[in-house]
Design a protein that fits this description.
The protein is mainly alpha-helical and 227 residues long. Helix content is 44%, strand content 7%.
Length: 227
């Protein structure tokens, strides 16, 4: 009887010591070590890849955001967003259905991030693409520059798998240059240079596609307009 109690006590003691050691190692020391390495080697990425403008965080270079005009009625949740044409616009964010209206995510809402999962022949998706294409042509045409519908790239009328893509293609950025230049009273070549300066090539020269980060581009645009 005493041996049984003693053995049980020893097993419990060993188990508690193991729990304590593993808690300290795995729950405290390991997270601190990983966090320290991340902060030392990749502090920018570890902190969310924040992008700052005039000393303030303007967003993350990994998460897209819209550039819209203020709502006419701030309390109307159903009011459609109207793009502010002073800025370069991102790709659509029509992702998963929203929690409130079971509609689509049009505001880069992190809570409902995801793809629509609509097939290519779905009537709803086809109509969304047609409407988006018509809006791109209309919004970006100016008295001196008319957008050719055939030049509208795919990502200008479709959302990404996450619905949060922060980048657009150089082709879509180029399509917006004349409109941005005219609205902001800038020279077209000046805006073209902003796009060129904020265009990133393929990773390691062969991975992915050339891309333009919309947030960084709009920060550069804001500085150019201020000057």
């Amino acid at each position: 009887m005493n041996n049984t109690v003693g053995n049980t006590a020893r097993l419990l003691g060993a188990g508690l010591r193991a729990l304590l050691v593993l808690t300290v190692v795995c729950g405290i020391l390991y997270p601190l070590a990983v966090t320290g390495i991340a902060q030392a080697a990749l502090s920018d990425k570890a902190n969310g890849s924040e992008v700052k403008s005039q000393g303030r965080v303007a967003g993350s270079e990994l998460i897209g955001q819209r550039y819209d005009l203020p709502k006419k009625n701030p309390d109307d949740a159903e009011e459609a967003a109207r793009p502010d044409l002073h800025w370069f616009q991102p790709r659509p964010s029509n992702g998963l259905g929203s929690n409130k209206a079971n509609g689509v995510n049009t505001q880069y809402d992190l809570i409902v991030s995801g793809a629509t999962n609509l097939s290519g022949d779905n009537d709803k998706l086809i109509q969304q693409v047609k409407d988006a294409k018509a809006a791109v042509v209309k919004d970006n045409s100016t008295p001196t520059y008319k957008v050719n519908p055939a030049d509208v790239p795919a990502e200008a009328v479709t959302s990404s798998g996450s619905g949060l893509d922060p980048d657009i293609s150089p082709a879509y950025a180029k399509l917006q240059i004349h409109r941005v230049a005219e609205v902001n009273h800038l020279d077209v070549q000046q805006v073209q240079k902003l796009v060129d300066d904020n265009t990133s090539g393929r990773i390691l020269g062969f991975i992915g596609e050339p891309r333009v980060n919309v947030l960084k581009l709009n920060i550069a645009l804001k500085e150019a307009v201020g000057k």
